[in-house]
Structures are given as structure tokens and as C-alpha cells.
Amino acid sequence: MIVKNAINSLYTSLKGGVLFSISHWFIYWAHHLSRMQMKILYILTGNIYMLYLEIVTTTRCTLKCKHCIGDIPEIKADEQYTMSFEEYKNYLDNLLKNIKSLKLVRILGGEPLLNKDIDKIIAYTLEQTKIKQVYLVTNATVMLSDKVVAVLREYPKKLTVDISNYSANETLLSRLKIKEIVEICRKNNITVNCPESYLWNPISPVKYHDRSIKENKKYYRACASLCVGMHKTPDGEAAVFPCLRAGTLFLRGIGGQVEGKDYFKLGGNLQKKEILMFHQNDDFNACKYCNFLDDKRKQVIPAIQKENPPISGVPSNTAVINGA
Questions:
Q1: What is the C-alpha to C-alpha distance for residues 295 and 67, in angstroms, rounded to an integer?
Q2: Angle subtended by helix axes 2-14 and 213-223, to nearest 10
Q3: What angle do CA 48, 52, 54 make, to 5 degrees?
Q4: Residues 268-304 as b or e (16 or more Cβ within 10 Å = b)
Q5: Over the Cα atoms of the chain, what is R_g?
Q6: SS3 24
Q7: How many CB atoms lie within 10 A of CB 156?
Q8: SS3 sequence, 78-143?
């Protein structure tokens, strides 16, 4: 069955071009092998070994991108959130006490540097021995503060500053601080990843697709998403979703997602089996609202802004300062 699914995934990705198909093919196998590995290791040892987790520390952002993969700009002002350090620590502690290790954590947003507690959040994440690698993802519109730099340089082998390079979009060049951030990182022996600016795949607006269970599973497997992501939920807790877009749909009240099947909460009663069952699932309700694999693969320049783009969750006349 897994070979058949892989063939379907390759066919889907080939429609997007050679480069897309190579990356998609790699992600497909990484995704499914990690699922198999997690189940086997749980049976043999009783422990959960997680591969990957993205954590949205704030939905506020300095940009409002038309094709945002996480649909962050679609979150209404009264649905926006920024995690405090205390909240973040509680969510992460509840997860880590139920797992043996977590290979990679990506701290992102929105723009994570808008979170005034980001230095504490990064420091606490790096201190956790169960977490092996940490990426801080930024769109390079906000400078690294002295407090953040002081934390980052303490963990040169465990931490990477991952810059989303939008310089192919000439309208943003005056706002990007890529050169300055790279210089600060190199000066302080901080690992920095700044790939050449890349094109984006366009993303259509959310639309419901009445797929059968079989069709929905096929769609999810073809997507082969590694983007398991944590969002803060309206009830003040946090939950882990199959991708960040699924979490955004939840915040917007879309998708009919069911706890235990489509996501698991990071409350004090979290059990190992909940984490395992979630990672073995391949029929997520959120996938029925996704068009990603159906969108034409004619790529567009990155970070095209919506008209008159306000800063998400911040009044347009408010100056944004990294308070970390």
C-alpha cells in the first residue's frame, strides 16, 4: 500500500515540475518513514519519538502575504494571539513529558520577533535536552534584539536562524534587513540559513471539497506534509494540528475538526497514545478544505502583499518594535 501511495504522490508532484517533484518525493518518504518509525519504536520501547513540530508563538506579522501557507492573514483581529512565556512553557512541558525526544522544533509566527517574550521562549526551548535542533524562522523585517542575540550565541550547534528570503519581491526590499541579520549572526557565531530567494506556489482561498474518506486519505498522503504545527486555541490551551493551515482553520471556526482525531490538546491530561494515534491518522477533516495540490503550479514571486496590508493584529498607525 505504501508503495502504491508513493507512486501516486510522485505522479502528483511531477505535474508541478522537476524541482518540485524531487523535494516532494523526499518529503513523502521522510514523512511516511517517520510515521512507521514512531509506531515501531512505541511498540518496542513504549516511548514516543517525534520528528518535527512548528510552533506559532504569535499570529501577529509585519507582512500580510496573499499566498501565506498558514493563512495567517485570514485570522481576524479578535482571533489573533501572542503566547506569553508562561503559556509556552506550560504547553511545551505537557508535550515533552509524554515523549522521549523531538528532532526539530521551528519557532515561527506570524513574525516571532514581535513576541516580547521571544528571548525567554527561545532560551527555554534550547535548554530542553529532549529537543535536538531548533530553528528560529523570521521574515527579516525585524532586527534581532540584543537579548535574542545573547541567547542564540549560547547554542551555536543547536540553533539556526532561518531567514525566509523574500528579496525576489522588489516591493519589499526597503523593509528587508537580511544583510544586517546575517552580519550579526556571523559576528556572534550564530548559525544562519539564508537561501536564495525562491518563488511561491499560489494558494487558492479556502473551499470545501466533498471528498470521501478514501479520497481524503489519498489527498493527505500525496501532500506528505511534515508541517505538524502547534497553535494556541481560543480556550486558552494549545493544540497540535497536521499543518499550520489546519490550525488556522480551527481558529477561524472552519473545518469541523474533532479532538483526538484531527488534533490533540496539550493539556495536563495528555497521554502518549493520543500523540501516537494522531501521527498515524491520514484522514484529517482540514484536508477537505485544502486546495494546495489542485492549484496550478505556475509559481509567483514570494510574499505578494494584499492591498493596503495592515500588520496583522496591530493597528496600521502603530510602530512595531521587537521588545524581546
A1: 12
A2: 70
A3: 125
A4: eebeeebbbebbebbbbbbbbbbebbeeeeebebbbb
A5: 19
A6: helix
A7: 13
A8: HHCCECCHHHHHHHHHHHHCCCCEEEEEEEECCCHHHCCCHHHHHHHHHHCCCEEEEEEEECCCCC
C-alpha cell at 198: 525562491
| Angle of helix 85-96 versus helix 118-127 axis, rounded to 10 | 20
Integer Cα distance of 143 and 34 in angstroms: 35
Helix (H) or strand (E) holding 53: strand 49-56
Q: How many helices (H) and strands (E) does the chain have?
A: 9, 8
Distance CA 6, CA 166 (A): 32
Q: Which domains does the chain have, with CATH numbers?
A: 23-229+243-289 (3.80.30)
Q: Which of 202, 138, 185, 192 is nearest to 166 (CA)?
A: 138
Cα–Cα distance measured from residue 63 to residue 70, given in angstroms and rounded to the nearest whole number: 13
For 156-191, write each residue's pLDDT tens digit: 999 999 999 999 999 999 999 999 999 999 999 999
Strand order in the sheet with 238-241: 191-193, 159-163, 131-138, 101-108, 49-56, 229-232, 238-241, 264-265
311 and 62 Cβ atoms separated by less than 8 Å: yes
Single pTM value for the model: 0.86
Asked whether the beta carbons of 102 and 131 are under 8 A apart, the reply is: yes
Answer yes or no: is pLDDT of 69 > 80: yes
**C-alpha distances out from residue 2 to 8, 19, 24, 220, Å:** 10, 23, 15, 13
Dist. CA 24–CA 255, nearest whole Å: 25
pLDDT digits 0-9 by tens, 295-308: 656 789 999 999 75
Residues 6+ apart with CB under 8 A from 112: 57, 58, 118, 121, 136, 137, 138
CB within 8 Å of 214: residues ≥ 6 apart: none
Q: Can you give the length of the chain in residues? A: 324
Q: Specify the residue for cell string 471556526.
A: 253
C-alpha distances out from residue 224 to 36, 44, 167, Å: 14, 25, 28
